[in-house]
């Protein structure tokens, strides 16, 4: 603690800062894990919605965003980083983990590796049923596709398809142009080979699993598999949405998280997975 040898006004502001820091230490932690090919900017609206009541953390995953020039993406290392961060900062506080797509796979991995470290988890559009044949089909095409990620017209086309708002298009374009070829390759490889770990069922967290109604059948089957694998998991389908829930229906997504975290009834338009 700093010694109080300052003026009255200086001591007052020091006191205020200390109170703010202590208040932050009491807040639940909310961690948001972004999808592949984007970065932490995708959670801007959610951070704004939750920052008053929660200590929010939105890391850039290995090989993404501000970390594009680091080593190629690794799901295992990404999970280890999140676990280490929680161990360093949680100090007994409630930990809420929210993941989208690739980030949702990492969230599943965190829960499976350290079953006691997360209290509440939201798993949105996580593929947990391996598709090695699809990877073998995609692998030869990736070197041909990679240059397109640097083209403005292709970036614009992808952004429209994903429902990315225009006010964050600059962030999406920067991420696309800075993505390394090695990261693109390992990201597809690990994404399409990921399998739900047997230890997932041991996680102590309450878990909400969601998938878009318009997503591919294997994504819906993955959501059902995750839901059925855990005794405290609830699975829901989001009507009229593909793999774009967090972008196209961000208000619904945010409200859903609030309801689940506070153990309230979820928005009525969500359809329970059966």
Automatic annotation (TrEMBL):
<protein>
    <submittedName>
        <fullName>Peptidase</fullName>
    </submittedName>
</protein>
<feature type="domain" description="AB hydrolase-1">
    <location>
        <begin position="31"/>
        <end position="249"/>
    </location>
</feature>
<dbReference type="InterPro" id="IPR029058">
    <property type="entry name" value="AB_hydrolase_fold"/>
</dbReference>
<dbReference type="InterPro" id="IPR050228">
    <property type="entry name" value="Carboxylesterase_BioH"/>
</dbReference>
<dbReference type="InterPro" id="IPR000073">
    <property type="entry name" value="AB_hydrolase_1"/>
</dbReference>
<dbReference type="Pfam" id="PF12697">
    <property type="entry name" value="Abhydrolase_6"/>
</dbReference>
């Amino acid at each position: 603690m700093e010694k109080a040898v300052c003026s009255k006004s200086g001591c007052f502001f020091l006191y205020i800062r200390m109170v703010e820091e202590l208040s932050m230490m009491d807040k639940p932690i909310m961690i948001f894990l972004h999808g592949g090919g984007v970065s932490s900017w995708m959670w801007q609206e959610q951070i704004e919605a939750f920052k008053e009541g929660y200590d929010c953390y939105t890391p850039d995953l290995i090989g993404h965003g501000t970390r594009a020039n680091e080593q190629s993406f690794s799901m295992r290392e990404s999970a280890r980083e999140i676990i280490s961060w929680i161990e360093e900062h949680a100090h007994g506080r409630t930990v809420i983990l929210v993941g989208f797509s690739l980030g949702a796979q990492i969230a599943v991995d965190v829960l499976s590796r350290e079953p006691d470290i997360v209290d509440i988890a939201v798993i949105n559009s996580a593929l947990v049923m391996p598709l090695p044949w699809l990877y073998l089909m995609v692998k030869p095409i990736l070197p041909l596709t990679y240059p397109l990620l640097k083209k403005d017209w292709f970036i614009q086309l992808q952004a429209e398809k994903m429902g990315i708002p225009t006010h964050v298009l600059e962030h999406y374009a920067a991420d696309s142009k800075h993505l390394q070829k090695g990261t693109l390759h390992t990201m597809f490889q690990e994404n399409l080979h990921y399998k739900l770990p047997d230890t997932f069922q041991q996680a102590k967290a309450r878990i909400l699993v969601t998938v878009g109604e318009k997503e591919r059948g294997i994504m819906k089957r993955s959501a059902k598999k995750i839901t059925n694998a855990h005794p405290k998991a609830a699975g829901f389908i989001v009507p009229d949405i593909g793999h774009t829930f967090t972008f196209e229906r961000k208000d619904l997504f945010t409200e859903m998280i609030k309801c689940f975290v506070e153990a309230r009834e979820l928005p009525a338009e969500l359809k329970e997975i059966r």
